[in-house]
Design goal:
This is Prephenate dehydratase. The chain folds into three domains: about 90 residues, D-Maltodextrin-Binding Protein, domain 2; about 70 residues, Periplasmic binding protein-like II (D-Maltodextrin-Binding Protein, domain 2); about 80 residues, Alpha-Beta Plaits, CATH 3.30.70.260. It is an alpha/beta fold. The protein starts with a strand and ends with a strand. The chain contains eight helices and 16 strands. α2 packs parallel to α3 and α7 packs antiparallel against α8. Strands 1, 2, 3, 4, 5, 11 and 16 form a seven-stranded mixed β-sheet that branches. Strands 8-7-9-6-10 form a five-stranded mixed β-sheet. Bound molecules: prephenic acid (PRE). Prephenic acid binds next to α1, β3, α4 and α6.
Length: about 270
């Protein structure tokens, strides 16, 4: 099956998508990936949502709220970054903002004087380094090709660095089967204990939260959309009861079931 993901060729997203798709097509942003699946231009999309060092890929969370899609798989993959350049004579390091942040300590210690340039993907940073000897890139070592040297490998701040990707499908393909569920909740309300009320239905039913993240709704300051992932499937009665309880609390807003899925660990 075809999947759209973040390009150009050689991104970590491309590698993750290759684990589940036999044909991969590229978009320049994660919003573009989600829009392509919502519009029916592609049956699947693969996008990064969270990294073990740097946390949320906020553009992905916002796009999952904005467009009608379902989360159908979760792929967790180790991320090992390399520093690539034509030679040692560079004054700028270009990469995706997530990759730059994941290598912050390495850059501070080894290259305290270089400028950092955030680009749309790690592979785009590699393209910049290929064109310009004053630019180095942070990316997967396999993207070096013949033109670039691998100056350092394993430069991420933690050896255990890992990124969680999701595979998305049109909303009609949402599944209730799986050991995990992703929900987005917009209470459109504000009172002491609101967040406690939203989380209690899970605690009361012994459902473990694997993640709770707030994103600004964009409506007004202090107004939030909550991304809640739980270790239970929508097929389970306890999950359905908890979601119904949350729907009652969020009656001024909405609750979106992105879907249930299982976690797959891939070495991409
Ligand atoms: O730029 C890439 O290679 C991507 O696939 C994006 C991305 C991200 O957004 O987190 C994916 C995995 C790594 O954490 C670094 C960058």
């Amino acid at each position: 099956m075809k999947a759209v993901t973040l390009g150009p060729e050689g991104t970590y997203s491309h590698r993750a998508a290759g684990a589940i798709a036999d044909e991969v097509e590229f978009r320049e942003s994660v919003t573009g990936i989600v829009a392509a699946v919502a519009d029916g231009a592609a049956p699947r999309g693969v996008l990064p949502v969270e990294n073990s060092i740097e946390g949320s890929v906020t553009e992905s969370l916002d796009a999952l709220t904005e467009y009608e899609v379902a989360v159908v798989r979760e792929l967790v993959t180790p991320i090992r970054h390399a520093l690539l350049a034509q030679g040692s004579d560079f004054d700028t390091v270009a990469s995706h903002s997530q990759a730059l942040a994941q290598c912050r300590a390495f850059l501070d210690v080894e290259y305290p004087d270089v400028a950092l340039e955030a680009v749309a993907s790690t592979a785009q940073g590699v393209e910049r380094a290929r064109e310009d000897p004053t630019i180095a890139a942070i990316a997967h070592p396999d993207t070096a090709g013949d033109d670039l040297s691998v100056l350092a490998e394993g430069i991420q701040d933690q050896a255990s660095n890992a990124t969680r990707f999701v595979a998305i499908a049109p909303r009609a393909e949402r599944s209730e089967a799986g050991g995990k569920t992703s929900l987005v909740v917009y209470p459109n309300d504000d009172y002491p204990g609101l967040l406690l009320d939203l989380l209690e239905p899970f605690a009361d039913r012994g459902i473990n939260l694997t993640r709770a993240e707030s994103r600004p709704s964009g409506e007004r300051l202090g107004d939030y959309v909550f991304h809640i992932d739980v270790a239970a499937g929508l097929y389970e009665e306890r999950t359905q009861e908890a979601v119904e309880a949350i729907e009652a609390i969020a009656e001024e807003g909405w609750v979106c079931r992105l879907g249930s899925y299982d976690t797959e660990h891939v070495v991409a």
